[in-house]
Amino acid sequence: MKGRSAAGKRAAPVLSATRRRTLGGAFGFTRLIVELGVLSAFAFSLALFVAAIAQAYVTIRAALGRLGDAETTKTLIIAAVEQADTLLIGVALLIISFGLQSLFVSRIQNVPAWLHIESFDDLKQKLIGIVVVALAVNFFSVALEWKGGGDILVYGAALAAVILAVGTYSVILSRQGGHRVHPTAEAAPDRAQP
Question: From the centroid of its chain, how far is CA 177?
């Protein structure tokens, strides 16, 4: 029976050396493109962090002479919330760059455990959390500058709909990920049986 099954199998086609080099070059080029994407996301993240620091310096320096004024306090609060929004987007870009690096190029050493990304679903879950917080911070920023009227209700309802949709997607994504069994976990019981 073993002889029949071995003879019945087709031999895998052998690729020529030229075709292997061509495919290897194509995959290498793809890896280079991903690396450029990683670097661009990291550069934008760094630029946003530097911009947030510079904006904080300018705002605080301008406010130092008028710290007791109520309008100055409101200006500082709005600037702080907008800075938090900028930093959250910077963090999202940083996570994207780390995630793409880990998934396509190589694992990054010396990063916190929460930044270890094992799959696209893992990357999406991390980004979803940041997007929801960034949307909430953005609404808070708009609410602080609100002068009255019903326009904020429409804006708030639109953001709530987006957050609800993203939250629903996150729940569905986590449930799908929870049912997957890792291949090594499936193989372990088979090895234990005699």
Answer: 17
Distance between CA atoms of 111 and 119, rounded to whole angstroms?
A: 16
* 41 close to 100: Cβ distance less than 8 angstroms: yes
Q: Quote the tokens at residue 71.
A: 């309008």
Query: 105 and 31 in contact (C-beta within 8 Å)?
Result: yes
Amino acid letter, residue 53? I
Rounded Cα gap, residues 136 and 131, in angstroms: 9
The 3-class secondary structure across 173-190, one letter per residue, is HHHHHHCCCCHHHHHHHH
Residue of 64 and 15 predicted with greater confidence: 64
**Which tens digits make up the pLDDT trace of 88-103?**
899 988 988 888 888 8
What H or E segment, with its residue span, contains residue 82? helix 70-100
In the chain, how many H helices and how many E strands? 6, 0
Structure letter (DSSP) for residue 105: I
Mean pLDDT on 55-66:
90
